Model the fold of this input.
Amino acid sequence: MTNRADYLALGDWNAVCYQCGRKRKASTLVKNWQGFYNCPEHNEARQPQDFVRNIKDNMTAPWAQPMPDPVFLDEFCTNHIAIPEEAVPDCAIPNTEPIP
Done:
């Protein structure tokens, strides 16, 4: 069976449309965005939403600093007695008597 593509064209060859399967000359087919060759009437444009780009969202803080090193006290508040030279600052309670 002959087709409209069955003629001699030097430097051209027969090819098949990826969409409809008709035999055409390769010079008449067009390459679509997916890389397949189609008839010009079956060629489809790429969806414009494929080209939409978002706005970069910068979620980093404008500045940051590391946490300070923990502070450990050498002395613990075990003696709440306000006796001179034995009381610990911020620990002694005034007017407290020692427990016997």
Notes: The chain has a mean pLDDT of 82. Residues 71-100 form one domain. Strands lie at 14-16, 23-25, 30-31, 37-38. The chain has two domains: 1-45, 71-100.
